Task: inverse folding
């Protein structure tokens, strides 16, 4: 339901002013009234709140049009409905051009006036919800909200910052589930087109026979089954950002047409003879190997050069060991209801999380957190919770497991010695690459450094 706004009636005719006040009061509105424009400005300054102003056009001193102009500049959240008693449309048209939300002509009936106010109230409610959603999206996709402690993510953040300041096309690569959509949205909301639309398109989900009309639009009757005209996703993204996910799944013929749109900044709907100018920022993404896609013809080379002016590669989660637990805690907090925030993760549970290979990447990690919360875990995540909800995919063996095996086989006199041997072997086999060694051991790089320091292993 739309919340009823406060109403200020500005009318120099006392009878009309009293009639309006009684009408709105009876309808359940909070209503005040003044007799001229100057008094209305004083009331707004004193109240300092957004409301709906119902004002007559012709009044002594500051008339309704001057009041409208003052409100639009000083109280942009306040809507104005103009009353005109001259029976001409010119006053109403001029008022609408200057920013009035609606108008009524005198004489009017009560239902007409109430309907106008209700219409403006609904419009205010919709605008408030849109603003709230927009603020939530911008907050969610702020760069400083990114969890990116791993060294491999620093170049990603640098690339995102550079991309947000540029108009150039951006290509995002990485395995499925690494967060390409999140990066694309973050770049959009941090850039100059943040107030305009972000239009995501998964090329793999669109049928080959419909993808052209979905992207470029189509006239009614342009093809069998075209019972109505389609605007097209490219035109919907005009002024904003178009994200084409899995761009290598787009038919080659459609790729050629997309290339022309990017070159000419014009789009021709299917069945049309005229072109329409468009202005959008293009972001593409793929989880396929680009070299392979170019070699086998899945991606046109000329289109590749057009869409990859800027590139960002997202590393898989298994190469971001430092981020796994912070991300998991973040997803737990997001999934938990207010007042049910989880206190922490048991060490054994954390070890099990770090040991997993995460073939589904960040998406799989988020799914695990949501599943734990949905199934009603206790305030602390235990190792049994993780075992219960973690899918049965292969996982890496943590250093302690490797060490235990070596101890059982008599390769080391103690568990600590076995762990040291496992670390030295991982470093040797990885060419002393700390990130790779940590990945093989199933521990965070920070943990690896701590253990190296403990065992006197040179960095």
Result:
């Amino acid at each position: 339901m739309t919340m009823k706004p406060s109403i200020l009636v500005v009318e120099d005719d006392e009878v009309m002013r009293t009639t309006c006040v009684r009408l709105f009061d009876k309808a359940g509105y909070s209503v005040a009234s003044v007799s001229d424009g100057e008094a209305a400005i004083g009331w707004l300054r004193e109240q300092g709140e957004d409301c709906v102003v119902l004002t007559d056009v012709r009044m002594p001193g500051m008339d309704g049009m001057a009041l409208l102009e003052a409100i639009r500049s000083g109280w942009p959240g306040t809507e104005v409905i103009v009353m005109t008693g001259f029976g001409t449309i010119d006053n109403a048209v001029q008022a609408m051009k200057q920013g009035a939300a609606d108008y009524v002509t005198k004489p009017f009936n009560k239902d007409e006036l109430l309907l106008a106010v209700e219409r403006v109230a609904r419009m205010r409610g919709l605008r408030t919800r849109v603003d709230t959603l927009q603020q939530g999206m911008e907050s969610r996709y702020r760069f400083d909200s990114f969890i990116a402690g791993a060294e491999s993510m620093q170049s990603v953040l640098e690339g995102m910052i550079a991309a947000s300041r540029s108009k150039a096309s951006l290509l995002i690569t990485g395995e499925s589930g690494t967060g390409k959509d999140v990066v694309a949205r973050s770049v959009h909301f941090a850039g100059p087109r943040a107030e305009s639309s972000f239009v995501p398109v998964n090329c793999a989900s669109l049928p080959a026979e419909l993808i052209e009309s979905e992207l470029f639009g189509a006239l009614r009757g342009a093809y069998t089954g075209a019972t109505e005209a389609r605007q097209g996703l490219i035109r919907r993204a005009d002024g904003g950002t178009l994200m084409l996910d899995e761009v290598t799944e787009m038919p080659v013929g459609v790729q050629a047409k997309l290339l022309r749109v990017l070159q000419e900044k014009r789009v021709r709907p299917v069945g049309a003879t005229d072109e329409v100018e468009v202005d959008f920022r293009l972001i593409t993404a793929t989880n396929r190997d680009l070299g392979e896609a170019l070699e086998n013809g899945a991606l046109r080379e000329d289109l590749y050069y057009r869409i990859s002016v800027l590139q960002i590669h997202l590393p898989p989660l298994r190469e971001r060991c430092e981020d796994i637990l912070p991300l998991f805690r973040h997803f737990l907090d997001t999934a938990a209801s207010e007042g049910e925030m989880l206190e922490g993760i048991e060490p054994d549970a954390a070890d099990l999380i770090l040991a997993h290979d995460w073939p589904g990447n960040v998406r799989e990690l988020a799914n695990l957190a949501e599943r734990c919360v949905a199934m009603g875990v206790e305030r602390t995540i235990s190792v049994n919770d993780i075992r219960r909800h973690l899918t049965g995919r292969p996982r890496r063996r943590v250093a302690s497991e490797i060490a235990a095996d070596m101890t059982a086989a008599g390769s080391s006199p103690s568990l600590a010695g076995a762990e040291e041997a496992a670390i030295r072997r991982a470093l040797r086999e990885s060419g002393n690459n700390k990130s790779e060694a940590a990945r093989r051991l199933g521990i965070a790089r920070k943990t690896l450094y701590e253990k190296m320091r403990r065992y006197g292993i040179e960095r």
Notes: DSSP finds 20 helices and 14 strands in the chain.
